[in-house]
């Protein structure tokens, strides 16, 4: 016999008072009514909360509260208003034990009657199945398990049940056994779920009116409880494991392919699938083996939609264990187009949105294409087939170099960026994958158009070796990659040669082929190992520009990357029009100032351009008129620099380093920010940005004074994920953002700046090298251990995210420990203490210092000391002699004797020199070689004043030839004012008197042709020959009267 629950009129009394729910869809939902003094009445409350409803549900033994409702959701009641403004903690035994105004203390209109929806049951389970994720559905009512009828659920309800039990997706609902004469408690409500509810109790339901139930319900779930990757080199690579029925096991998939792997990478927030490793690269599992397949079609196309069955450990055939290597770059995708083209969307938190086009460029687009395994960006123009999307439009600007692995590795600036309409969103058309270009790449260079040649065969990137690599072969590579023409074909130095698989050897091209595979090539299987070497290419499309030595990417010394070398620009004719082209090209707005005379410090190496003369409308600096590449008449003290509008800085004024009125530097001017809608998180971000701790508060008494400049920003909103203020959302830049000065932001941070003193820059002294700011700890010696770096006054560790052999090689080289043997992760030498300074270090392996590698400063809690990076190096450190070494008596004796001998020799040398001077004076003789030099100079000076002249560069040796060798010692006595008229800075060494060509020239040819200059040089010194002359001789020499030179080097002998 079936026992039915008497749910039609559920009321519970305590003492003389009673509680019930009326007019609901079931016994555990309805209008709350209380019986007091033998009369039923209602409860009125304008602030009825889930805690209050929890007490009602618990008192009625109806499980837990699902919803707390007011304004008569179950209709208006009758009778008195017994309780008003009830305030419960949630643990009271009865509703009237909560705080309230008193029985019947307030007469309330019945349209304010409150109601509740209780779960009606406290738990649910599936029983009698093969696993915990399939079986008969039962719910727990009070302390008894009730069976649910098959007719009371549908497939959507089953989906909610499977989700709540963490059993994946619903696979099926089945009719159970016939009840017959079984004595069981039957749940009397029908569930009508939409399918997206979190819990079964959230679903709408109503009482089953027929009171009959022939069969119970069986629910079959896929058993999926989640995925993970095990035994990989990163958190986004390895052997695929899935959770089924509470147990982790290796996935055995007979149809595992790149498409399935790509789906998995997306699901676990690891970007896209790069390849499927073969063999036992991720080790063997030591637990269960689950058989499943991503390609099953029932109810979807994911593994979580398919039933999973357990296999024995030995039942999965070799090679069928699923493995994958994901990109590890989540948060970016293309929509409304194709796989590799469309509208750009990025994710902030859990919210996807389109990206504004205003700061989108090809470099950032290429990084996204690479991140999505779609090659490189061919275009960022809106295509006709792209359809507008939905959701927010993010205003982030990504400033990429083009070689980053992920878009989020690029410098990110959002603060103050303008708003966008739906017609102004970012798009990209990638070259696509697979395709011709995607089978080839250049790695390890400064851009995608220079570096080591690598080819993809069967999904694996391999080396290309050749012993006769030339410019014709290189032309084909550049053409295939759409990188222009080849500028250089080269062999890699031994330190940069690869160790991986070899894909091709002996490439022979005519130079006209469209792809490398059309040339005569040999595969590595058919050609034995020989003297072939790794090859590299520099294409014309590799040309880059950067600003160096500024504290921000939008200010600094201008440097160009050309022919594989970084070099500077001479400041001759350098003005605001030239600087405007630089700032615009770098996405930094317009130029505020064009700097000359190495304002941001002197560069080194090549000087690429001179006499640059832009109109300001050019898209690239190298499109401006100038001298040919590498031709100049300058030194590095003439390096050009710029300050752009988008150079940003943050400071606190009128207080201390960590307290004051907030000001930002923008458009060349300091200005205040407004405090409207500013949260504690935003304040903490400012403090963190300034190095003043992780928190702070807004001062409301305006004790740091009023500003006088613009008020640049308002409504700044930061989140805990933001590592700097520049990444936060805000209103667009506006010099009148605040309504009045009372809205200016004043903050006090909880910490103090750690890098105030110069001593904090070094661990043991006021000055140090990069070598002294790096160490390894916890290993056997100074060449193995946990990597630690000194920064902001303390030692800290490095997160192992993306830590690899290239990074380890740089560390070992910097420590003087040879090359890296292994790059270790997960605190292999123990967990460190203190801060974790860096994450996602990305070295090419050729840098001299870890500080030269790209990386991200670590903010927040994305890494802990369980992920400290470590190295094992091949060499042993060179240990300097310690101060405790004792000197033996014989050594001390030798030092004393040596000192005495040097003293005697010095006295003898002085006497000999004095005797020779007297002899010269008596014979009126002097050094003929030195005299010949001075006569030659005087002769040439006179001749130039009388005759024609030659250009300056004929006698000026450029930096490109000498690489800025040592200069002559400069004297302190100044030249006359008219010495600056010519505008030239330096003269190189003049040849000796044996140079016949020089002896026929006049003085004017050596000095150079006087001419106009766009500005005066700011550095000049006197010229003094090696052999001293008298003051009279120097003052009367025509060579010093009007040279126009700043510096004249020593003359050669």
From TrEMBL:
Keywords: Cell membrane, Disulfide bond, Glycoprotein, Membrane, Repeat, Secreted, Signal, Transmembrane, Transmembrane helix. The chain crosses the membrane at residues 887-910. It comes from the Eukaryota. Residues 19-119, 124-222, 227-327, 332-431, 440-540, 545-645, 650-750, 774-874 form the SRCR domain. Pfam families: SRCR (PF00530). Residues 944-1053 are annotated as: Disordered. The keyword Glycoprotein applies. GO terms for cellular component: cytoplasm; extracellular region; plasma membrane. InterPro entries: SRCR (IPR001190), SRCR-like_dom_sf (IPR036772). This is SRCR domain-containing protein.
């Amino acid at each position: 016999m079936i026992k039915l629950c008497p749910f039609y009129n559920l009321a519970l009394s305590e003492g003389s008072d009673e509680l019930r729910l009326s007019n609901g869809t079931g016994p555990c939902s309805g209008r709350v009514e209380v019986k007091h003094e033998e009369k039923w009445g209602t409860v009125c409350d304008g602030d009825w909360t889930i805690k209050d409803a929890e007490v009602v549900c618990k008192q009625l033994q109806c499980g837990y509260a699902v919803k707390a409702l007011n304004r008569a959701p179950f209709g208006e009641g009758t009778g008195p208003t017994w309780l008003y403004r009830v305030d419960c903690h949630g643990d009271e035994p009865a509703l009237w034990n909560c705080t309230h105004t008193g029985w019947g203390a307030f007469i309330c209109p019945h349209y304010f009657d409150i109601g509740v929806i209780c779960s009606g049951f406290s738990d649910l389970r599936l029983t009698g199945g093969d696993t915990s994720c399939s079986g008969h559905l039962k719910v727990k009512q009070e302390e008894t398990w009730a069976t649910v009828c098959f007719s009371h659920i549908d497939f959507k309800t089953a989906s909610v049940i499977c989700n709540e039990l963490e059993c994946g997706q619903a696979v099926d609902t089945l009719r159970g056994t016939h009840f017959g004469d079984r004595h069981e408690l039957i749940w009397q409500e029908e569930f009508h779920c939409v399918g997206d509810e979190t819990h079964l109790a959230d679903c709408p339901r109503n009482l089953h009116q027929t009171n009959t139930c022939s069969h119970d319900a069986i629910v079959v779930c896929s058993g999926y409880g989640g995925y993970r990757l095990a035994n990989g080199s990163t958190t986004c690579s390895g052997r695929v494991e899935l959770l089924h029925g509470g147990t982790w096991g290796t996935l055995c998939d007979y149809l595992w392919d790149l498409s399935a792997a790509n789906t998995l990478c997306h699901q676990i927030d690891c970007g896209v699938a790069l390849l499927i490793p073969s063999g036992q690269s991720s080790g063997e599992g030591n637990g269960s083996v689950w058989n499943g397949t991503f390609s099953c079609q029932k109810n979807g196309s994911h593994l979580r939609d398919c039933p999973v069955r357990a296999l024995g450990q030995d039942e999965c055939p070799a090679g069928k264990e699923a493995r994958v290597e994901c990109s590890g770059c989540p948060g970016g995708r293309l929509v409304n187009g194709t796989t590799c083209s469309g509208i750009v969307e990025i994710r902030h938190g859990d919210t996807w949105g389109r990206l504004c086009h205003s700061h989108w460029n090809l470099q950032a687009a290429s990084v996204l294409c690479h991140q999505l395994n779609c090659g490189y960006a061919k275009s960022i123009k809106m295509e006709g087939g792209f359809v507008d999307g939905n959701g927010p439009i993010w205003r982030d600007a990504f400033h990429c170099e083009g070689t980053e692995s992920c878009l989020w590795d690029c410098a990110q600036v959002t603060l103050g960026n303008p708003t966008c309409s739906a017609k102004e969103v970012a798009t990209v058309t990638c070259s696509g994958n697979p395709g011709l270009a995607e089978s080839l790449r250049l790695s390890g260079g400064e851009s995608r158009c220079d570096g080591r040649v690598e080819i993809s065969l069967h999904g694996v990137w391999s080396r290309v070796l050749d012993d006769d690599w030339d410019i014709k072969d290189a032309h084909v590579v550049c053409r295939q990659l759409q990188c222009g023409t080849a500028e250089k074909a080269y062999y890699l130095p031994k330190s940069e040669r690869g160790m991986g698989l070899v894909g091709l050897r002996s490439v022979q091209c005519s130079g006209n082929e469209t792809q490398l595979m059309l040339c005569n090539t040999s595969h590595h299987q058919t050609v034995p190992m020989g003297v072939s070497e790794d090859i590299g290419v520099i294409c014309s499309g590799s040309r880059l520009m950067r600003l160096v030595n500024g504290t921000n990417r939008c200010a600094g010394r201008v440097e160009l990357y050309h022919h594989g070398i970084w070099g500077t620009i001479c400041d001759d004719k350098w003005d605001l029009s030239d600087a405007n082209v630089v700032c615009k090209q770098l996405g930094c707005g317009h130029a505020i100032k064009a700097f000359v005379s190495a304002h941001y410090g002197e560069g080194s190496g090549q000087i690429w351009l001179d006499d640059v003369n832009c109109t300001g409308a050019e898209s690239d600096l190298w499109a401006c008129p100038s001298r040919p590449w590498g031709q100049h008449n300058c030194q590095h003290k003439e390096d050009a620099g710029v300050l752009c509008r988008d150079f940003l800085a943050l400071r606190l004024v009128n207080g201390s380093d960590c307290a004051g009125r907030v000001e930002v530097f923008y458009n060349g001017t300091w200005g205040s920010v407004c405090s409207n809608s500013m949260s504690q998180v935003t304040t903490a971000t400012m403090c963190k940005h300034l190095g003043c701790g992780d928190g702070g508060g807004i001062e409301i008494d305006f004790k740091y004074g009023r500003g006088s400049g613009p008020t640049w920003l308002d409504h700044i909103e930061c989140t805990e994920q933001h590592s700097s203020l520049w990444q936060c959302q805000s209103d667009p830049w506006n010099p009148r953002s605040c309504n009045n000065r009372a809205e200016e932001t004043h903050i006090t941070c909880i910490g103090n700046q750690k890098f105030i003193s110069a001593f904090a820059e070094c661990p043991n002294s006021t000055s140090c090298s990069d070598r002294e700011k790096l160490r390894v700890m916890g290993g056997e010696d100074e060449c193995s251990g946990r990597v630690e770096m000194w920064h902001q006054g303390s030692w800290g560790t490095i997160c192992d995210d993306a830590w690899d052999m290239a990074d380890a090689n740089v560390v070992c080289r910097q420590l003087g420990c040879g090359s890296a043997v292994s790059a270790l992760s997960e605190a292999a030498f123990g967990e460190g203490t203190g801060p974790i300074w860096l994450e996602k270090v990305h070295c090419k392996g050729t840098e001299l210092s870890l500080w030269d590698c790209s990386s991200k400063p670590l903010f927040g809690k994305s890494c802990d000391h369980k992920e400290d990076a470590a190295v094992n190096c091949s060499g042993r450190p060179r240990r300097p002699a310690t101060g405790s070494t004792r000197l033996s008596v014989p050594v001390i004796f030798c030092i004393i004797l040596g000192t005495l001998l040097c003293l005697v020799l010095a006295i003898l040398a002085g006497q000999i020199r004095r005797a020779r001077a007297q002899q010269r004076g008596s014979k009126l003789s002097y050094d003929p070689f030195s005299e010949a030099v001075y006569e030659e100079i005087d002769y040439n000076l006179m001749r130039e004043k009388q005759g024609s002249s030659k250009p300056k560069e004929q006698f000026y040796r450029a930096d490109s030839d000498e690489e800025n060798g040592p200069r002559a010692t400069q004297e302190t006595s100044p030249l006359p004012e008219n010495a600056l008229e010519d505008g030239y800075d330096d003269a190189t060494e003049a040849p000796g008197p044996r140079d016949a060509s020089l002896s026929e020239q006049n003085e004017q040819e050596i000095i150079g042709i006087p001419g106009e200059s766009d500005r005066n040089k700011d550095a000049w010194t006197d010229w003094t020959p090696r052999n001293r002359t008298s003051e009279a001789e120097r003052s009367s020499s025509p060579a010093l009267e009007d040279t126009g030179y700043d510096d004249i080097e020593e003359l050669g002998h």
